[in-house]
Amino acid sequence: MLKIMNQFSIESRKTAYRRFSSEEFDLLVIGGGITGAGIALDATARGLKTALIEKRDFAAGTSSRSTKLIHGGLRYLENLEFGLVREGLKERSILSRTAPHLAEPFPFLIPIYSDKRRNYDHPLKMRAGLILYDLLAGKYRFGRHRRLSREEALEFAPQLEQTGLRGAFLYYDGLTNDSRLVIEVIKAAHDLGAAIANYTEAIGFMKRADGQIGGARAHDLMTGAEAEIRSRITINATGVWVNDVARLDDGDDRTLTKSIRPSKGIHLTVSADRLKVCGSWLIPSLDGHRFYFVVPWEGRVNIGTTDTDYDGSKDSPRAEAGEVAEILDAINSYFPAAQLGQEDVISSWAGLRPLISEANASNTSGLSRKDEIFESDDGLISISGGKLTTYRLMAEQAVDLAARTLKQRFNITATDAGTEDLPVSGGIHTRSDLEDFALILAENKKLNPETARHLVFSYGSNHQQIVELMRGDESLREPLIEGLPVLRAEVVYAVRYEAALTPADVLTRRTRLTLIAGSASLGCLDTVADLMAKELDWNNDEKRRQISDFRAEFEAEYTVI
Questions:
Q1: Domain map of the chain by residue range?
Q2: Which of 63, 109, 245, 505 has the CB geometry, 3.0–4.6 Å to 34, for a possible disulfide?
Q3: CA dihedral over 294, 295, 297, 302, signed as positive or negative
Q4: What is the C-alpha radius of gyration for the chain, rounded to an integer number of angstroms?
Q5: Rounded-to-integer distance, Cα 34 and Cα 83, Å
Q6: Cα(310)–Cα(275) distance, rounded to whole angstroms?
Q7: Cα–Cα dist 91/249, whole Å
Q8: CATH fold group of domain 10-63+179-258+368-410
Q9: Which of 355, 357, 361 is nearest to 264 (CA)?
Q10: C-alpha–C-alpha distance, residues 107 and 111, integer Å
């Protein structure tokens, strides 16, 4: 029987605003990236009355611009951050259970050359690191590492430089669809009762009589209205914007004893026909002690990333020509048969890591990815740092702190419910079950196998709702872009069940067509706008404005300068 889903739509958003004005919440979360989403889910699971607001769309910042990895962090072993690696490996395993449609165990490979410059480190040291990685994973291990012969390595990457190639190390980590993970976590929190609104900016804090923060003033960027959201505890989970939000507290950022230092990482998406790899490759730089990732993803290949200080606009980082050339040169030095050029770049995109910096840190590449939680004298809790893989643990720690304060100051007791075994939205089946569902869907609904797999592994159990939409309107079975598996039905689903309010919400963060299709996504923009206009009652002027806004965002953030 089809499970009837709670709608998460513009009507849900209106309901959230009515609640903002009439209720007092136990917890207000500012920030709708993966950390804020995780906090909202953890808090609602513990029975706390929770609200969440996000200035742009959910995952519009760093959480849609990652390398798409779920990993312990092999390179963190160099800095002896064994605890951080262990945490990541455990959380990687938890995510494979709670979001099986979005957490795919995947082989990773590191080439081994006789030329020392082409090795990230000495092969014996790499082997020791991989043994330690397996040991730290323990029962959470996805698979044991092994050494491949030269011939086996070339089977995984036939374009790999063969001169001096001795083989490769193979080990296992995971891949995800980062923004879809955020959306599924947000939906799970909404289903448990959280009041959630995107395009809602915190513009100031409210104080209680005792001088403690008692909520936030919010500006609705869709309507221009303002609301006062009363809450006993407020958590600032805004990533690289955490200082900016903290300064709303009387212009003071004293809540942060260390500074948030944005590190820019860019990625390029290219065709799998141009860069032929099986598995994800870690490619050492020839001119520095770092490596680049080559990651098969959504039928394309992502390559990146850089790690540099950033002081530009945090709202719209983008890849610059020099950064693109750096990555292409590095990849071409290892895959000479590919000879990738600027013309092969389908899309380029940049994300900002919210690293926590000591005053004397010389560069971002050496900074820890460990998260930290700060609390100001007037009660604002801020959390930053960390990485996508460990979002659930970060959320748990933040809510632990909030729960202690709620008990001490307000005599409110959170339950002991945790999220280790709580599925995200769509995550109720095993990955093996989903494989079977994809085969059944292709056969029974007359979909090609690629489209069926796309639906099942993008939406998990929620793919049934998209099938229902297609049953009601056969035109929704049509692809948005010929040759790609994304269907028109997904636009309607995104508006009704995933709070999508703009074409960018659909194309960039719900379906990922902006990344995997690049400028071709502009070709389906009118279709997307037409479908959204019917759902959201846009007139022609509003539809034209939405189309224009998407084009401007695409040019500003997903093309090379």
A1: 10-63+179-258+368-410, 94-175+261-357, 431-557
A2: 63
A3: negative
A4: 23
A5: 21
A6: 29
A7: 33
A8: FAD/NAD(P)-binding domain (3.50.50)
A9: 355
A10: 13
SS3 for 489-549, per residue? HHHHHHHHHCCCCCHHHHHHHHCCHHHHHHHHHHHHHHHHHHHHHHHHCCCHHHHHHHHHH
If DSSP codes are grouped into helix, strand and coil, which group holds residue 439? helix
Cα(36)–Cα(52) distance, rounded to whole angstroms?
Answer: 8
Cis omega before residue 305 (within 30°)?
yes
24-30 and 213-220 strand pairing: unpaired
Per-residue pLDDT of the chain (561 residues; tens, 9 = 90+): 344 567 999 999 999 999 999 999 999 999 999 999 999 999 999 999 999 999 999 999 999 999 999 999 898 888 888 999 999 999 999 999 999 999 999 999 999 999 988 988 889 999 999 999 999 999 999 999 999 999 999 999 999 999 999 999 999 999 999 999 999 999 999 999 999 999 999 999 999 999 999 999 999 999 999 999 999 999 999 999 999 999 998 765 554 556 788 999 999 999 999 999 999 999 998 887 788 999 999 999 999 998 889 999 999 999 999 999 999 999 999 999 999 999 999 999 999 999 887 544 445 454 555 789 999 999 999 999 889 999 999 999 999 999 999 999 999 999 999 999 999 999 999 999 999 999 999 999 999 999 999 999 999 999 999 999 999 999 999 999 999 999 999 999 999 999 999 999 999 999 999 999 999 999 999 999 999 999 999 999 999 999 999 999 999 999 876
Residues 6 or more apart in contact with residue 1 via CB below 8 angstroms: none
Fold of 431-557: Helicase, Ruva Protein; domain 3 (1.10.8)
One CATH from 3.30.530.20, 3.30.70.3460, 3.30.9.10, 3.50.50.60 for 94-175+261-357: 3.30.9.10
What are the DSSP E strand ranges found in 37-194?
A: 50-53, 69-70, 104-113, 146-148, 165-175
> In this structure, what are the phi and psi dihedrals at residue 36, rounded to the nearest 5 degrees?
-65, -40
CB 189 within 8 A of CB 41: yes
What are the tokens at 282? 């870690």
Give the type of residue at 55. K
The amino acid occupying position 430 is: T
Nearest to 420 by CA among 94, 105, 189: 94
Adjacent-strand bridge partners of 207: 213
Backbone angles phi, psi at 477, to 5 degrees: -75, -15
Note if the pTM is more than 0.85: yes
The sign one gets for the Cα dihedral 400, 406, 411, 412 is negative
- Cα 146 from Cα 91, distance rounded (Å): 23
